[in-house]
Fold this protein.
Amino acid sequence: MSQQLSNEQLISLAMQYGTPLYVYDADHITAQYQKLTAAFAHTDTRFFYACKALTNVNILKHIKSIGGNVDCSSVNEAKLALLAGFDPANVLYTSNGIHFSEIEEAQSLGIHINIDSLSNLEKFGKKFGHSYPVGIRLRPNIMAGGNIKISTGHDKSKFGIPVDQLDKILTIIAKYNLAIQNLHIHTGSDIKDVDVFVKGIDVLFDIIPHFKELKSVDLGGGFKVPYKKGDGETDIPLLAQKVKEAFDNHPNPNGNPLQVWFEPGKFLVSAAGYFITEVNVLKETANTVFAGVNSGFNHLIRPMFYDAYHQIENISNPEGREEHYTITGNICETDTFAWDRKLPEIKEGDFLVFKNAGAYGFEMSSNFNSRYKPAEVMVKNGNATLIRRRDTFDDLIRNQVL
């Protein structure tokens, strides 16, 4: 397991590159990937990094360098993966309510494709027939995940073709002689209970016999990562054991052994990310002391969007006397990162770091209030590299017609 970046390293980076600043520990990403591959060493398993968590091309290049594949939620993510050097055979694209022209573009790239609607499956069959293998995303009607906003497999979810529409799927396959080589399910994010994945496998075992050309089963991602001290996480070795047992007990009735795919995103990059901010102002009121930092939900929206918890540390004064603070941003909206959080004494100019900022931090950032997006730095083997420069005013007006 890689060591966390030290307070001294983070302060040095903040001084060198300015704040707010996203920092990613590439060695931690490697350690997380190795945790997966070691656990699943005795099964035929591939891991596709769900790059919607963090798409910086330099992060993608690092994922490629350690042997990973990449999972994409848009054709532009797929193009970024190819730009990073991935072979099309190692790129997976799962569509979600998009126009069929995007699926056509994905097909032209030669990558793996999953289709999530009967409508687009019909269009795909009409245009490509048996000439291009394709996968299907199914909705297993399983409720899972740490928040309703990140639960994707339940019976009211927009994602995938409901399993109870199997007859319609099979009708389209027969009509166009489609080559279905992958079945995909994804129940949600922040899943600690490995039995959720087993339930998904059970759903698929009832369906697999209908697909004669099937080569792989994609169980999605959503592994839980710890956010607070004492938090648990998905037991990856136990998951590997249960997956192996399930497939050993249910050999593919159509002959060939099935490869198992997973799509870890947050699991790989969340704890590798640090978001460093600087305290602009302290404001004491009758109810709380506000510590206003030089950032906001335009840079890290998860606390406002998901009620997500991020551990916050005062790296400028880690041994100070603890007080209660409300950590707020500088956006002209209610913009609160944490209420009544106990932290070592904060002074104006202190650096506060947000942990677990690698996934859906920069990726969901915006220029709201016409503020600049922060820079990104990657640390690998102790060496820091700027992988995205901080916005300038020119970035705000680049696409505006003046």
